[in-house]
Amino acid sequence: MSDTEEPQQKTVIGISYGNSNSSIAFTGPDGKAEVFANEEGDRQIPSVLSYVGDEEYHGAQAKSHLVRNPKTTIAYFRDFLGKSFADIDPTNAHASAHPIQHDSGVAFSVEEKAESGLSTLTVSEITTRHLRRLQESAADFMGKPIDGCVITVPTDFSESQRKLLVEASKAGGLEVLQIINEPVAALLAYAAREETSHPADKTILVVDIGGTRTDAAVVASRGGMYTLLATQHDYELGGRQFDDALIDHFSKEFIKKHKTDPRSNERSLAKLRLECENTKKTLSLSTSSQISVESLADGIDFSSSVNRLRFDMLTKKSVDQIVALVESVVKKAELDLMDINEVILAGGSSHTPKIASRINQIFPASTVVQAPSTMPTALNPAELCARGAAIQASLIAEFEAEDIEQSTHPAVTVTPHLAKSLGVVIAAPEGDAGKAEDKVYVFLESETAVPARRTATFVGSKTGGDILIKIVEAKRESVDVTPPKEEKVNGVDDEDEDDDDDDDEEDIKIFKRVTEVERVLAEALLKDVKKGAKIEVMLNVAGDLTLTLTARVVGSQGGVRGTIPGSAL
Amino acid sequence: MNVVATSHSLPPAEPEWVHEGSFHILEQLSKPVHRNLEPVGPHYLAHARRKRHHRTFSEDDRIVAAQQAKNVEDADSGEISEPEDPLLLQRDPKDWKNQDHYAVLGLSKYRWKATDEQIKKAHRRKVLKHHPDKKAAAGGVDDDNFFKCIQKAMEILTDPIKRRQYDSVDESADIDPPSRKSKANIYKLWNPVFDSEARFSKKKPVPRFGDDKSTKVEVEEFYNFWYNFDSWRTFEYLDEDVPDDNENRDQKRHVERKNKAARAKRKTEDTARLRKAVDDALAMDVRLQKFRKEERLQKDAKKIAREAEEKRLADEAKKKAEDEAKRKEEEETALKASKADAKKAKEAAKNAAKKNKRVLRKGAEDANYFHGEGSAPSDVITNVLADVELLITKLDNEELDSLAKRLAGLKVGEEIKAVLVDGVHSIVSKGSSKDGDFKVLK
Ligand SMILES: Nc1ncnc2c1ncn2[C@@H]1O[C@H](COP(=O)(O)OP(=O)(O)OP(=O)(O)O)[C@@H](O)[C@H]1O
Ligand SMILES: [Mg+2]
């Protein structure tokens, strides 16, 4: 039999589990992760369950029951997992089944089957049912049973919440290989695109704007390994605030015409909310959008339209808050906005062009902002977490449970990280010892986990002779490189320049981040280097912070080697 | 292994670089930071594989490692909680204008100082506690009044313009100025007052009242600043509600006008209020008296110093004159004395010479004018006396003296003549006389 020769490949998936939506993804044989649609064709599957008649509805169907059957529709429950009733914010569940206090924490009381009386469903139980439905969709799509999954959660999910999630999934027959952090999954989704085994060191900001919350994380990516430097959360900021802005806008319009407030009736409000969300999504792609709601209130149909400009005005406050959160998390990581090399916008609301452009504005031009409206090659922000989870799932699919347990153990994850960037002093460029030039070539960025090593080559000098390699700890400083204002010479040179433009640029200052020596650690002398000879330098930092330098002249025997003993950790 | 080809070059070694060997250590690497690597991605898994082969995983390790890690998740700060006043919980949300928005969120002790971050956190805390759905679930009455108060407070405190308007009239943040009669330490009395008023300043930083160590310049600057205080304080919050139905246009315009006037009046009153506070502070400010006194003392000290200097100069001049006079006097006396001495010596010499001359003349007489026995003829006497006289006139006082001494005690004529002839020889040899001038003494 052939199946004894080749061990059966495990079928594993990645799941992003949100308060608003969940997604399922798998990694194909080509190593590319893909989010797939459920039976209804949805890739963002609403995390909603609804009990109507004898049926359990899930996803988009369940969500639509928010209008007619809010009391038996359960939504926005993820963050309740493992929390006490006192610690939850029930605001988002106001227009659906209300959470209640339960011995295990939080539960919902709904009639599961017609005429069967109320039953109490704990958040764990709801989670089990939700994940089971996702698993069924996945198995359907793959045509085979699912052996395991990786699930993403926000960074502030506690250990006990993670444990409960694993248990809830298991209870539904779905094995959890690993729970991973959302921003790291989003990062992995992008990292997997890069076809290099030596990814560049970057400091990345992940901003996840979902439906009910916004999470920001600053992540150091060093040698392909990720470390969270700071995180911050806003639990009252997300897509719903953008929906609310439209709801208020159209309600006012409706009141003006019909003297009745659709917000004062729960059903009208639920209808309007669903339609406003659709209108909002359309505005991410086109500059204006229609809305029409049959029998919105008092049996009156409503239809209207809104353009993006108006929408941007209505949502300015929320966008301001997102920008403030971004600035605040970077500050919390003790970094400058200029230290962020890349911004990844994740979560469904990151489709909103204004959010992306406002975030883009506060960063220097060199910072890549990965969002659909700022970067044509950006991935779908709503799919990043699921994709990252699928990639991780495929990496550990064949691991034993014991292996995974040990690899994620703090004894392995907790690692000394360099406090300062390490590098060597470089010669000033020919004829320019300017302030705005790097003084140090950085081998190992700060926040690199040790052990680590890097190698680089340097071009030879024009004269030859002895060369000094200064190993230093470096810092980055902002240098004002605003070009001096050009004097207008009789207006001849600048004839085509617009006066208004001039005014705009009046106080725009351009800063550049340059490396500077902070502390010289050691010096190595490389003797009698022939002119033009290339030099190869390797810095190796051991786990105990012992630094070893090896430098040699490429293509010759000459070289120098030295070691700075590590300090006690 | 991955090698990055840079376009940089390395600096040449300075010729002064001399160390033993070719590797010179100056310092160690900075202490590392312990952080949690995210256990995700191919590179991490490779790292874990490497690391696991050197480590054991006792529970102890786990605890130690977890404790070492710098936690990036924010711990909810407990500093923004205060007991809830039962009366506050019963507030009617419709009366939001009179609501203490800070107290509603539990930020009474922060007020205008509360950061946006604190407001957000405090709001979240209150929402978790007072959400009406929770009260309903717990079987309580469906009362969302306080929740509405919370939302209103949040609406106002997170909108910069509304917050300013509220902060403008937030009397709970005011610190009343002390009465002029207050006896307590003025710095303790006034610093809180001005620190609180400072919140309304458009210009930052705002100078503080200071303490007894403040310099005169600082104090002057303080009063200058506060007498020219530029305040953003506004009074819209106290506006009377404007009716917003279109029917009543006139009424609407009337209320608007009234509001505008009321705002202007309040602003004027506020400016006057602050001015009075500054006046009071100035009146009570003992530092000003101190500075005045110090100044006076300084002036006095200067005067004394100037007078002392003048006196010193006068004394000096006087002493100099006296010294000069004294010196002159001494010089004169010395001169006189030396003149008298010289006269005396001259006299003495004169007398001595007279005596010596007499000795010489006597010697010739005693030697019987070198005539032997019997009285000498008168021409012999005349010649001898002429020679002796000539000799005397040619000899100076000293020679005269020495000849006279040699003659002393001589009785024999020949001996006396020999001495006199010696005298003649000596003056002839000096060239002051010729042999032929003498007739006898040769
Ligand atoms: N094209 C779009 N343009 C604007 N908003 C969108 C778009 N697509 C989805 N959204 C919004 O994104 C939000 C859902 O985001 P996401 O799927 O990331 O939710 P989630 O992670 O489950 O959210 P949370 O846990 O914060 O509630 C919704 O508010 C939705 O309206
Ligand atoms: Mg999310």
From TrEMBL, chain A:
Residues 479-491 have a biased composition (Basic and acidic residues). One of its GO terms (cellular component) is nucleus. Gene3D superfamilies: 3.30.30.30, 3.30.420.40, Actin, Chain A, domain 4. Keywords: ATP-binding, Nucleotide-binding. The keyword Repeat does not apply. One of its GO terms (molecular function) is ATP binding. Residues 492-505 have a biased composition (Acidic residues). It holds the Pfam family HSP70. Residues 479-505 are annotated as: Disordered. SUPFAM superfamilies: Actin-like ATPase domain (SSF53067). One of its GO terms (biological process) is cytoplasmic translation. This is Uncharacterized protein.
TrEMBL record, chain B:
Residues 69-92, 243-270, 308-361 are annotated as: Disordered. GO terms for molecular function: Hsp70 protein binding; ribosome binding; transcription coactivator activity. Residues 100-170 form the J domain. Residues 74-85 have a biased composition (Acidic residues). It is found in: Cytoplasm. Residues 308-349 have a biased composition (Basic and acidic residues). PANTHER family: DNAJ HOMOLOG SUBFAMILY C MEMBER 2. This is J domain-containing protein.
